[in-house]
Design goal:
Layout lengths: L6 H8 L3 H19 L1 H8 L9 H13 L3 H14 L1 H12 L13 H15 L1 H10 L6 H15 L1
Helix pairs in contact: 2-4, 2-5, 7-8, 8-9
Length: about 160
């Protein structure tokens, strides 16, 4: 489903979970992104100290930039989230390597394999992290798997 998806499609799948992503990479946003880009900081957060910004302060700004498809912000979010969740990446890499040597060329995973992979990942890492990983990495799950992950992630957040 996400083989050649746009940032707009990724945003639609993740919009409810942007706060979770920001919470996970908040320190990187403060220390790297905001401190290195003073113009961005002043333009979006005024004279606030980046170290004092809370997740709630960041969500509206970064959500809008992600929604607009800001390539630099998407890249930053993806890179930093994946660095903090390397265990999820290694899990998927090991499982997908059993299906294809070069799993980046897969168009869509088999439904049964997808169900097993998603369920095992949810048990190990939770539905929210499984969904975020799958979207940020464009895992080629069938659409029904993504819809199930979104439902499970929403239940998990409650």
């Amino acid at each position: 489903m996400l083989k050649n998806s746009t940032h707009a499609k990724q945003y639609e799948l993740l919009k409810e979970f942007i706060p979770d992503i920001i919470r996970s990479i908040r320190r990187d946003l403060r220390q790297d992104h905001l401190k290195q880009d003073q113009e961005f900081l002043k333009g979006h957060f005024g004279s606030k100290n980046p170290n004092k910004l809370k997740t709630e302060d960041m969500v509206p700004v970064y959500s809008q930039l992600l929604k607009e498809g800001n390539e630099k912000v998407w890249e930053f979010f993806t890179d930093r989230w994946l660095l903090k969740h390397n265990d999820v990446y290694e899990f998927f890499e090991a499982k997908l390597s059993t299906v294809a040597e070069d799993f980046t060329k897969l168009e869509e995973l088999d439904l049964e394999f997808s169900k097993e992979l998603a369920n095992e990942s949810v048990k190990l890492f939770g539905a929210v992290d499984t969904l975020i990983f799958s979207v940020l990495n464009s895992v080629v799950f069938p659409e029904s798997i993504y819809m199930g992950l979104i439902e499970a992630a929403n239940k998990e957040k409650q």
